Amino acid sequence: MKTIKVMTVFGTRPEAIKMAPLVHELERTDGVESIVCVTAQHRQMLDQVMDIFHLKADYDLDIMQPRQTLATITTKSLVGLDEVLDEAKPDIVLVHGDTSTTFAGALAAFYHKIPVGHVEAGLRTFDKYSPFPEEMNRKLTGQIAELHFAPTERNRKNLAAEGITKGVIVCGNTVVDAIHSTVNPDFVFRDDTLNQLDYENRRVILVTAHRRENYGEAMEHIMRALRRLADDFEDIDIVYPVHLSPYVRETAAKYLSGHERIHLIEPLAVDEMHNLMGRSYMVMTDSGGLQEEAPSLGKPVLVLRRETERPEAIEAGTVRLAGVEEDTIYSMACTLLRDENEYHQMAHAVNPYGDGHTSRRIVHMIRHYFGQLPDLPDEFRP
Question: Which Pfam families does the record cross-reference, listed alphabetically (predicted)?
Answer without folding.
Answer: Epimerase_2
